[in-house]
Structure formats: structure tokens, C-alpha cells
Amino acid sequence: MEFVARFFTPPRTSFFLFGPRGTGKSLWTQRHYPDALRLDLLDPQIFRTYSARPERLRELLDGYPAARQVVIDEVQRIPDLLSLIHALIESKQKRQFILTGSSARKLKRAGVDLMAGRALLRTLHPYMAAELGARFDLRGALQTGLVPLVLEADAPADVLASYSALYLREEVQMEGLVRNIGAFSRFLEAVSFSHGAVVNVSNVARECQVERKTVEGFLTILEDLLLSYRVPIFTRRAKRELAAHPKLYFFDAGIFRALRPRGPLDRPGEIEGAALEGLVAQHLRAWIAYGKGSDELFYWRTRAGVEVDFILYGASGITAIEVKNTAQIRPEDLRGLRGFQEDYPASRAFFLYRGAERRKIGNVLCLPCADFLQQLQPAQPLPL
């Protein structure tokens, strides 16, 4: 995989680096910590050695007293190592542990709570457009996404098609997360229709022929595997009755496209619009994660159906962002933003679209989506 400089800035203390498979965690650690002592728990022999006797890690470190950094890839595979790592950090040996992981499921139960305050939590996301610079192409990003493993492949479409199978085989099936792998495969297809929307659990359960509780469990697994996330409703000092449920997104637009079934009754613009909204969402999450501020990501929707795709709230102020897969700006496209500004007069409003012109319509700044994404950089104000 070609190395692309990332916006992620590591802390100086020990930390967890979470991110879905293929986001470049191992490559990043290799470039930033070339002299580190390294354990790759995806290696079957190393996995067997340390799962049988985790205390061998202490013996290994005693054999390399000069090693200042220790990288352990896919640490969630042996949660028992965390107790030992916690003790080693407490021993004040001046070592930095970098613990990468593509699943938080086991660690949530066994380790992260134990090490709270001793190892910081950080995340690595798919590429941001500004990281790629001139290589960024909006059309390509909407088709194959921005996961480094996919983007750098000789045949991106083939790698993308096998990506979900990789998770099914190595994370879901091998770890025994679900009893019925076929039902989970059907669930992945069914829930892809909810990308950028509120999940109707009952409808998904009926489609997959499983119980409602099973679908709720599947949704939790999807989030624990870092394949999806939910954006909550913005309710601060609400002046209207609002929706109550969060919206679901897959972590990458290309992954969504790979999972979403297509047929003769599907409108191409419908899938493209959901992909565009998800692409903006993943950029905003990365901008928040890599930045130094305290912003949080929400959406806004009233009971009457007036909606704004994204609300950023925090140190940068209040910003409302609407995303539309259209080359033209219609008055009705700005209705949600204007409604939000009525309730929150101090807010800024952006309308991102597929056109080529920057326009200011009232208090709404309309920007080409590609321009907005290419200018979006962590620790810097939103593009104006």
C-alpha cells in the first residue's frame, strides 16, 4: 500500500488506535514507529504463542530493554494482554504502547474500561479528500470509497466486493459473534437501505426473517466492528417537537455501495445521494476526530419532517450542513436550513451540492461538495 501522509497526530502517551480493517493502521505505525517492538496478532503463530501465555509479553520486553515503543496490532484478539499492559504502564518504565484494533467488541467487555485513563482512545478513518490532494476524485470516491486498502489496490472494485466477506469470515464467523451467519449476511444487505436514515428495526427483522431483538444485536455488532455508526438528533434548547431516533451510516461510501443491492426498480440518483451524504459524514467525523476541538456531530429533524442532514456543535459554534446530489439549487432545498436558522439565529448554514459555483443565498453559503471536502482540514475552521 502506498503511504499517504495522514492528518492524524498521535499522543505522546500510550494509546489505542481503532479503525476498520484497511484504513492503514499498520502502515501508519510502521512509518511513525520504525524502531518499535512489534507484535502482529493476525499472525497465527504469534497469536497462538501469546494467547496461550500472555505473560510472555513481559519476557519479550525484558529482552529488549532499549525499546521505547511497543506496537501490538489487532490487540482485541487477545484481551488478556491488556491487564499485563496496564501493569507495565503503571510500572513507569517509560515505554509507549500503541495498541491497534479493528473491533471494540471484546475490548469493551474486557479491557478498555480497565485501562481508562492509562491509554487514550484514538481513531483512524478512511482518507480525507485533503489528504489525497490532487488524487481526490469525487465521482471515484462515491463509487469505491476512500478506504486505503481499496483505493490503493490494482483492482479496487474486486477488493471492495470482498471486503464484507473478509469481515464475515475473520471477525463475525471466527469470533463466533452470531450463530446464524446467513441471517447476518441478509441483515447486511437489508440494513444498507437505511444508510443515511433511521433504521426501521421491525422492517429489517421481517426482511431477514429473524426476531427484532436479533436485529438490534446485529446493529450493535456492526457498530462494535466499526463498520457503522449512528448520528443522534440535535435537541439543545429545542423550540419544536423533534424526531427521537438516530440515523445510521456505514463508515465509508464505497462499503455502502458494495453492500447495497441494486435492481431495475432502483433509481441511480437515490443510491448516489445516500453515498454523497455518507461521504460528507465520514469527512466530518474525521475532521472532528483529528482536530483539537470539542465538536460533536448531530442531525436535526422536526416531527413535521423539516430536516438538516448535519449539525456541528461545539468549539466551532453551531453549523448546519445540508447535502444534495443535485447540480441545481431549488428554493425548497434550503427549507430545512432556513428552519434551523430560525430556531438558532447564531448558526451558520452550508448547502453542499454537485454544481460548480459558490453562491450566497440569504444566510446560506452554497458550495460545490468537492471543493468543501478538499478544503476540509482538521484543527482549521470550516471552509468559507
**Beta-strand content bin:** 15-25%
**CATH topology of the largest domain, which one?**
Arc Repressor Mutant, subunit A
Instruction: Give the uncertain stretches in residue-range form.
Output: none
Q: Kindly state the number of beta strands.
A: 13
Mean pLDDT: 90
Q: Tell me the number of helical segments per DSSP (H or I, 4 or more residues long).
A: 16
Alpha carbon gyration radius: 22 Å
Shape: globular
Spell out the helices and strands N to C: EHEHHEHEHEHHHHHHHEEHHEEEHEEEH
Compact overview of the structure:
Helix content is 40%, strand content 17%. With 384 residues, it is an alpha/beta fold.
Descriptive notes:
The structure is a single chain. By secondary structure, the protein is of the alpha/beta class. The protein folds into 3 domains: 15-123, Rossmann fold (3-Layer(aba) Sandwich), CATH 3.40.50; 129-230 and 246-262, Arc Repressor Mutant, subunit A, CATH 1.10.10; 279-375, Trna Endonuclease, Chain: A, domain 1 (3-Layer(aba) Sandwich), CATH 3.40.1350. The chain contains 16 helices and 13 strands. Strands 8-9-10-11-13-12 form a 6-stranded mixed sheet, sandwiched between helices. A 5-stranded parallel sheet has the order 2-3-4-1-5. A two-stranded antiparallel sheet has the order 6-7. α7 crosses α13, α9 (156-173) packs across α13 and α13 (253-259) runs antiparallel to α14 (268-290). The longest helix has 23 residues, at 268-290. The radius of gyration is 22 Å and the shape is globular. The mean pLDDT is 90.
